[in-house]
Amino acid sequence: MYGCKAWTISKQIQNKLEAIEMWFLRRMLRIPWTTKKTNETERVLNEANKRRSLVRTIRKCQATFLGHVMRRGKLEHLVTTGKFEGKRSRGRQREKIMDGLATWLGPGKVSDILAAVKDRDLWRDMIANAYKQGT
């Protein structure tokens, strides 16, 4: 998970992360791939062992790092918010970290999230609530 704070997690990458997490769980529980156990059975075992989802952990790391960067207000702030001079590139615009965190933290706009980052206690509560809900 080194460097996960800068990843942009699309739906395709999220599916791959969930698949590798299930593979790790099966390896840790020593369940061979030839057995006829479904992933739902493994997910019940996962919750029983109080393990957290890999994607949720990555999102939490990203949100705490975003709060740090936004409160600092240096060059990283400009890069994260995407406020650059010049023309936009052709084609479909790439997904940004802010867009992924906006959907994870709940209904709201990116501007609302940037305003909430300034208040550290509010930001911690938002992250804790999103992590508990598991969205």
UniProtKB/TrEMBL annotation:
This is UDP-glucuronosyltransferase 2a1-like. PANTHER family: REVERSE TRANSCRIPTASE DOMAIN-CONTAINING PROTEIN. It comes from the Eukaryota.
